[in-house]
């Protein structure tokens, strides 16, 4: 049994893309139809697998497909779709104002995340027939945690908007009691529909992400001080949001045969490894050695994937 949605996350540069693509390759070579998706706006999936990947799914080898979500493109599509929905609804007088507001929203810090999120949910919902497993190569921790906890946070906010909208419409309907035409017009409320569609989408995303049989999140870290602290905090947050934490992958462990030059560094890693075993032992700690050179292309990834077989499925 494989969980349908497998996430790899962690601090910048720890080896998330390497682990995600190597894990995906291993599944594919066992006959599991696998899609590996990068949600990191700074993609490096194509480099890792040694094959160009873009905002449309490409086949990488039998049973393996890749996709890099293009944050800027999704943000633009997202804004355009909201704009076209809104422009149908609002009166001509405020069209320019709406356009202006949307432009500001497009440039705001959360816009790309919101747009990536929509695409991300779409991928999860449509994965069913085509793929057995979707492996997500995520952006460094902070960004990803915001992405995964977005439904929970936005649900509260959208619920509030829906309540306000309902109240406003009730008032308008009351005021229109004696005007037949207006009454007819107010029967439907497109804004309410848009809001409730989004609320339902967040709800569905939350259901998928918090289903422990369906989704699992693996952490990748290096045996150093800061990543241990960051991983500890991130695990606590995910668990608070009821997202299943799978394995903790410790990457770049200096092998014993590395020689005198790296001895001191190796000793310091040993201390951190002991802390990692103690703190994260219950999740299953999977260890990966530091290799002599970068891990690039399918052959390199296949070498790493044997070590990753210990990852909890
Ligand atoms: N165990 C290892 N031995 C040697 N090189 C490694 C190892 N793990 C990763 N690398 C190399 O280190 C670089 C960074 O790894 P990777 O891209 O997987 O990290 P990342 O966590 O995805 O980074 P980012 O946060 O930038 O997305 C890559 O060039 C990769 O080939
Ligand atoms: Mg990466």
From TrEMBL:
GO terms assigned for molecular function: ATP binding; ATP hydrolysis activity
Keywords: ATP-binding, Nucleotide-binding
InterPro entries per UniProt: ArsA/GET3_ATPase-like, ATPase_ArsA/GET3, P-loop_NTPase
Pfam families, A to Z: ArsA_ATPase (PF02374)
Residue ranges constituting the ArsA/GET3 Anion-transporting ATPase-like domain according to the UniProt record: 4-308
Family: Belongs to the arsA ATPase family.
Protein's UniProt name: Arsenite efflux ATP-binding protein ArsA
Upper taxonomic lineage: Bacteria, Thermotogati, Synergistota, Synergistia, Synergistales
């Amino acid at each position: 049994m494989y969980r349908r949605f497998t996430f790899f996350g962690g601090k910048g540069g720890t080896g998330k893309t390497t682990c995600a693509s190597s894990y995906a390759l291993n599944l594919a070579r066992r006959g599991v139809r696998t899609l590996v998706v990068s949600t990191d706006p700074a993609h490096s999936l194509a480099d890792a697998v040694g094959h160009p990947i873009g905002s449309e799914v490409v086949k990488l080898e039998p049973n393996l497909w890749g996709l890099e979500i293009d944050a800027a493109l999704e943000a633009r599509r997202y804004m355009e779709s909201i704009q076209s929905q809104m422009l149908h609804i609002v009166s001509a007088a405020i069209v320019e104002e709406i356009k202006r507001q949307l432009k500001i929203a497009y440039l705001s810090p959360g816009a790309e995340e919101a747009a990536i999120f929509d695409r991300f949910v779409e991928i999860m919902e449509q994965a069913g027939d085509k793929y057995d497993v979707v492996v997500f190569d995520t952006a460094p921790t902070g960004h990803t945690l915001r992405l995964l906890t977005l439904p929970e946070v936005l649900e509260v906010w959208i619920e509030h908007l829906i309540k306000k909208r309902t109240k406003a419409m009730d008032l308008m309907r009351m005021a229109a009691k004696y005007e037949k035409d207006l009454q007819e017009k107010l029967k439907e409320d497109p804004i309410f529909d848009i809001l409730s569609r989004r609320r339902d989408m967040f709800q569905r995303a939350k259901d998928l992400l918090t289903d422990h049989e369906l989704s699992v999140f693996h952490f990748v870290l290096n045996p150093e001080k800061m990543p241990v602290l960051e991983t500890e905090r991130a695990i606590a947050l995910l668990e608070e949001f009821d997202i299943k934490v799978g394995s903790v992958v410790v990457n770049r462990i200096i092998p014993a045969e590395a020689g005198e030059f790296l001895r001191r560094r190796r000793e310091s890693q040993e201390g951190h490894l002991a802390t990692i075993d103690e703190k994260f032992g219950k999740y299953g700690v999977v260890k990966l050695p530091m290799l002599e050179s970068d891990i690039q292309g399918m052959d390199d990834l296949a070498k790493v994937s044997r070590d990753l077989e210990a990852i909890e499925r």
